[in-house]
Amino acid sequence: MTLLGSLALWLAFLLGHWAVVTGVVGGWKQRADLIQSSRHAVFAMCGALLAAVVSLEVALFQHDFNVEYVAAYTSRNLPIFYTWSALYAGQKGSLLFWASVLSVFASLAQVLTARRHRAYLPYVGAITSLVITFFVSVMIFTANPFERLPYTPLDGRGLNPQLQNPGMVFHPPMLYLGYISITIPFAFAMAALITKRLDNDWLMAIRKWTLLSWLFLSVGIVLGMWWAYVELGWGGYWAWDPVENASFLPWLTMTAFLHSVMIQEKRGMLRKWNLALIIGSWLLSILGTFITRSGVISSVHSFTQSGVGPFFMGFLLIAATASFGLYFTRLHLLEAETRLESMVSREASFLFNNLLLVGIAFSVLWGTLFPILSEAVRGTKVTVGPPFFNQVNIPLGVALLLLTGIGPLIAWRRASPANLKRQFALPLTAGGLTLLVLLVSGMRDGWAITAIAIGIFVLATIVQEFWRGASARHRQYGEAYAVAVGRLIGRNRRRYGGYIVHLGIVTLFIAFTGMAFKRETQATLRPGESVTLQSPYGYTYRFTHLGISQYDALNREVTAGTVEIARDGKRIGLLTTEKRQHVDAFKRPTFEPSTEVGIRSDLREDIYIVLGGVVNGTEQAVYRFTINPLVWWVWYGGMIVALGGVIVMWPGGAPAVRRAQAGYAVKLVGKAQ
Amino acid sequence: MKAVRGGVSRREFLALGSMVFLMRPPQQQDSLPGAGPSGRLWDPERAGRPLPPTTARDNDAYLQTIEKRLRCTCGCGLDVYTCRTTDFTCTTSPAMHRRVMALQDAGMNADQIIAAFVKENGEAILMAPPKRGFNLAGYFVPSVLILIAGALLVLALRRWTRTPAVAPAGQGAGAPGVSATPEELARLQHELDQIDA
């Protein structure tokens, strides 16, 4: 099967070249036969890469340890669930996953693109094929997943224990899907530049793709946070690690695009900016891939250092030069159709929103690359950790949250003072009252107070929008309020789905403030001994160490500590936390012992217990007890964001709105005449 | 009929068994709350590196503040406090923790301890670069650039809102004008505001 995989890679490599050449020449000469051939080559390349994926999966499931990748990332006793995910657990397999998923997206773009956007397709096919061919080249020449060993080990090394978590089965694919699918909007943008068809047509063609990438990135990032929280054991979910930052960067620029594209659609403005954002987002996704794989910046998440770094660096530089070079030659074709009419308008607020989103992206990129810059300029290496990022980004994040509330309240084109008063009175009152209550209740963390008060302000704006819309429907059609809200969302999914996304963002911000009130302690306890810890809500938790048990599981030897928890003297349950020594099928240890955290969540706070180890081989155990407020809301926030994204993406809705708006415009014109 | 041919009879066998059972020393119970000394683990090797008992100083808030400013050099990317309370296989962060305590015992305050670490390991030992010299660029370039971009944006917005709008394609000079009274236009604007809101 691995021979088939290798052949499939070579076939994809050749087909990729053919698709690029025929796509470009066919598009340029308008030769239907070449365009058709390019399209077929895209499909064939997809088939070849899927065959390569199947070959690798078969090797993984057959425990073909003669294949270096299989021996490095699986073992005979690895659960099936994780044997599947080993496909993208290592550098080589994840490159194959990248290329194959992109080939599926490239084929879907060829199939699903509406007839009226077909003029872009030869170039879209060529550009996506070029990117796929690059990834296939990296595999063939430096990181071949089908490489064989000169001998066959009895068993493989197994999967890193930290990757043996359900979060890791879903988080990387989601993030990859986000990264990878940005290539399709990028390809359309480049096709628009090449063909000089720079009206709003290409935006219509990529609308769903941009939302899809953004949605996958959002879900992937939140799943990554969840994985880090439950698996890494340090008690947090975001550490501004370079690899985390790499996923955050394109998310920020894509979010900026999703806002600014509305201005282009409605007012014909920001055409240069939107193209630049799409190109930038794609380059950032490649930069993220480079950071993760090159070893140029140290990160706990990155793949081991390998020879792919220079390939990615070269590709990134060439791609940036070519795409922005083409962009600059077309700038004269990208003049705005209209101008801004007022500083106090939704367009202006979206511009500031874009400024902040791109500003945060820049500051995260700057912080991530600053150690390299410092070494290059001063010859001194520095560490840029969470204190730096928090200091720079928290104020920007809070300002962005404020704009999340302000933007939707201001009218398009020009807001009148009456409009502003009507829109802002209630939300400002809600935010102000919250601020007052927090101060009176003795909360003193400045950023947390500010974020919560602004969060409530934004929440009030969202509630107000739903209330007004539902009330109008209730008055006009006599619908019950719940039905009215449902229909309101259904009739204008983009607008109200967007509000739901904002609701998710507010939830996330308020949840993030919980970390400012984290409490923790370490204790060494004999069986029966207890330690107490005060929660920020004023509860007193008592943790009693009951004992240590040891047992064997499928691919690990477990040492489990059990702790009884009481809140204000009332028993609320038991938590178990483990040390795991992973072993292969011959009971040989494969990795250093890992820790499995015990977590008990409720809406207010999480109890997070880590078994550090034992004293002198006895049941006297060393624990870390942490109380993390509001963590559950981070996951709820992520779910709300995803729900809002799905609503915005859901097919239908928009044409009805356009029809309604067109009808309204006709009515007004009729009245005016 | 004899119960057992040759050897031991059934009665003798039961008596012997009872004696063995009665003569067994009572087993010490472990793992019970408040049962006294901890029992030994079946296989201590599985529980990872043996740890020393926690002391009050391990939870000392002042020491934690210092350790959160220092990076563990094991390659984990975490600060010393987080590493020593998370990755219990690491031997580097406990050693750095002991060094911090030793320096405190020698009479040093937080800044002096940090300075001692920087002197021994360079600036990379800090979780965030000190705010001086070239590092100031790290802290302030993003904010300064955002402020400059914001100021430029405000200026551009002012200029754009002063200059007349460029007519959209197809709606230039040739487009028919709207014949409406100021009241009608005001009503139209109000209605549009309502839609936008």
Biggest pleated sheet of chain A:
5 strands, antiparallel
User: Which architecture of the domain at 1-164 in chain A does the CATH hierarchy give at level 2?
Assistant: Up-down Bundle
What is the H-and-E element order of chain B? HHHHHHH
- If you average the pLDDT of chain A, what whole number results? 90
Biggest interface between chains: A-B, 98 and 84 residues
Main pleated sheet of chain B: none
Radius of gyration of chain B: 40 Å
Low-confidence segments of chain A, ≥5 residues, pLDDT <50?
A: 654-673
Which percent range describes the beta-strand content of chain B? under 5%
Distance between the termini of chain A: 75 Å
Kindly report the CATH topology of the domain at 1-164 in chain A. Four Helix Bundle (Hemerythrin (Met), subunit A)
List the helices and strands and how they pair.
The complex is a heterodimer of chains A (673) and B (197).
Chain A (H helix, E strand, L loop, with lengths): L1 H28 L2 H30 L6 H6 L6 H6 L5 H22 L8 H21 L24 H16 L1 H13 L5 H32 L9 H26 L3 H24 L14 H21 L16 H33 L7 H21 L10 H24 L5 H32 L3 H11 L1 H21 L5 E7 L4 E5 L5 E14 L2 E12 L2 E13 L11 E3 L1 E4 L3 E10 L6 E9 L1 H19 L4 H19 L1
Antiparallel strand pairs in A: 1-9, 2-3, 3-4, 4-5, 5-6, 7-8, 8-9
Helix pairs in contact in A: 1-2, 1-6, 2-5, 2-6, 5-6, 5-7, 6-8, 7-9, 8-9, 8-11, 9-10, 9-19, 10-11, 10-13, 11-12, 13-14, 14-16, 14-18, 15-16, 16-17, 16-18, 17-18, 18-19
Chain B lengths: L9 H14 L37 H7 L12 H5 L7 H14 L4 H12 L13 H28 L19 H15 L1
What would you say this structure looks like, in words?
The complex is a heterodimer of chains A (673) and B (197). Among the domains of chain A are: 1-164, Four Helix Bundle (Hemerythrin (Met), subunit A) (Up-down Bundle), CATH 1.20.120; 428-489; 517-632, Tick-borne Encephalitis virus Glycoprotein, domain 1 (Sandwich). Helix content of chain A is 63%, strand content 11%. Chain A has helices at residues 2-29, 32-61, 68-73, 80-85, 91-112, 121-141, 166-181, 183-195, 201-232, 242-267, 271-294, 309-329, 346-378, 386-406, 417-440, 446-477, 481-491, 493-513, 631-649, 654-672; strands at 519-525, 530-534, 540-553, 556-567, 570-582, 594-596, 598-601, 605-614, 621-629. Chain B is an all-alpha fold and 197 residues long. The longest helix of chain B has 28 residues, at 135-162. Chain B has a domain at 54-155. Chain B has helices at 10-23, 61-67, 80-84, 92-105, 110-121, 135-162, 182-196.
